[in-house]
């Protein structure tokens, strides 16, 4: 058999039965996979935490840590939770599968194993892992691009990360759904990614922009939406990117939306964005204290720009943090520098 320059994927086979383990290793290597082996749960977990694995075939009953325990540990870590795990079990019962599902297993194989079924499931899950990796890589590239834009201006250093954490904290306090908080976390990083199309002399201009320069600057919300649009996982992020410069009275951009026409998630990001801008140093003024910042925000709310309920919620979050109260939402904001200056 001709050797492959690149394996189809890396698979971990974890089983304390030597004969079965060797059979699985042989079948998979013949197909072109790179195969790692473990004879017990502890060894399997070490490999999964150390190596880049595309799929793990783990026997449920092993000495030391069981396959269920390994599965729970892997799925509980952000860096490994997307690794597909197939639990191999001799107990073909509903209860056994329910326990596997609770542990986070992606699939099950029952003994005795059938070669065709094994290879079909392996191929499908490895392919799915590759798609997931490509998606993660694309998101990583977008976030790196966003941070490189931010790095051009020393006065905005750390702004994206602060905004991401603060938006999630405010979203938690408001009781927003998990997918909305995920969108806020991502939007906090990439909301200004469209500025890649804005000339640097405009981005860094110390004085006011003229009409042409302002039009170019304001186009960054539309450009940012277009850049992120190909990623389906960013579908909830796109409205935040496009509308985080809208004002409740319709005086914002790019679509001059009013009131509830502006998506709530966009209003949340706008709220923490303005607060962060006010409480960090700028070339033309010093950073304001939190009290001064909220006084300014309330004044601008009276002009019809911002959502008063969100300003109040953010104020409560900041006050709770500054007072050291063990409120869940305040704790979530503990590492958000924009709320803890």
Give a summary of the structure in a few sentences.
This protein is α/β, with parallel strands linked by helices and 341 residues long. The protein has 15 helices and five strands.
Task: Name the features.
341 residues, alpha/beta, Rossmann fold, Hypothetical protein af1432, 2 domains, 5-stranded parallel sheet, 15 helices, 5 strands, 7% strand, disordered N terminus
Total discrete domains: 2
Total of helices? 15
Name the average pLDDT.
85
From N to C, what is the helix and strand string?
EHEHEHEHEHHHHHHHHHHH
Sketch the major β-sheet: 5 strands, parallel
- From the spread of the alpha carbons, the general shape counts as elongated
Radius of gyration: 25 Å
CATH overall fold name of the largest domain: Hypothetical protein af1432
Beta-strand content bin: 5-15%
- CATH secondary-structure class of the largest domain: Mainly Alpha
- Low-confidence runs of at least 5 consecutive residues: 1-5, 326-341
Number of strands: 5
Percent of residues in helical segments?
Answer: 40-55%
Instruction: Please report the distance between the alpha carbons of the first and last residues.
Output: 63 Å
- Give the strand line-up of the largest sheet: 2-1-3-4-5
CATH architecture tag of the largest domain:
Orthogonal Bundle
Provide an overview of this structure.
- This protein is an alpha/beta fold and 341 residues long.
- The chain has 2 domains: 10-133, Rossmann fold; 156-339, Hypothetical protein af1432.
- 53% of the residues lie in helices and 7% in strands.
- It contains 15 helices and 5 strands.
- It has helices at residues 18-31, 41-50, 67-75, 94-103, 115-150, 159-173, 178-190, 200-203, 211-218, 220-228, 238-243, 264-278, 290-302, 308-322, 328-332, and strands at residues 10-14, 34-38, 55-59, 85-89, 107-110.
- The protein has a 5-stranded parallel β-sheet, with helices on both faces.
- Helix 2 runs parallel beside helix 3 (67-75), helix 3 (67-75) runs parallel beside helix 4 (94-103) and helix 7 (178-190) crosses helix 12.
- It is elongated.
- It starts with 9 loop residues before the first strand and ends in a 9-residue tail after the last helix.
- Residues 1-5 and 326-341 have low confidence and may be disordered.
